[in-house]
Amino acid sequence: MKEAVVLLSGGIDSVTAMAIAMHEGYAVHALSFNYGQRHTIEIEKARHSAAAMGVKKHLVLDINLGAIGGSALTDSIAVPKDREVAEMTRSIPVTYVPARNTIFLSCALAWAEVLGVFDIFIGVHAQDYSGYPDCRPEYINAFEQMANLAIKAAVEGKERVRIHAPLLYLSKAEIIQRGMALGVDYSLTHSCYDPAPDGKACGRCDSCLFRLKGFAVAGLHDPIRYQEL
Predict the structure, then answer these.
(1) What integer is the mean pLDDT of 130-152?
(2) Could you tell me the pTM of the whole model?
(3) Spelled out in words, what is the top-level CATH class assigned to the domain 3-218?
């Protein structure tokens, strides 16, 4: 069986990307990160999804991006709430974590090289992205080019790295519909940037609002728990 490394955050996008990889016949090595994010419940959810979907191995790496800061997800910066879509997409939001996907993909590349695997899946998508520069098609293409200049097998002409972003041009509703068709259990996922201590989603941050809109447009019920508003 062919194998792939899949970046798994525990959210809708990464779990759906993992389901697509499995549907395409890949045995999955899932990679998650405890990077100092305030919403660490996503690591627990990633473990649940990885176990439920039968990955070959699930690795959780500790990388303290909180020491760098600069993001509402890793620093003492308030998470924006109750924003309109126009405001969300006007500029790069404070929830952007500097260089996060570059760091994550680099770790995935390192693990893939050790495993002898040359396919890496990431759940970024450009249509609904909140202005994050590392979710663009240009970025994914550039990283793939860089990766093939960086590893031994590619330089020796034996293999080439392929970065798969199967959700890149899908809306959140289309992603959810695709996942449902593949049997994804979205009750095991987490999206909220600022959850309550008991894990309930706030329902008001950008990520929650995109998620809720996605389920509504898809005509489906969101199975996770939200705080009473």
Answers:
(1) 93
(2) 0.96
(3) alpha beta
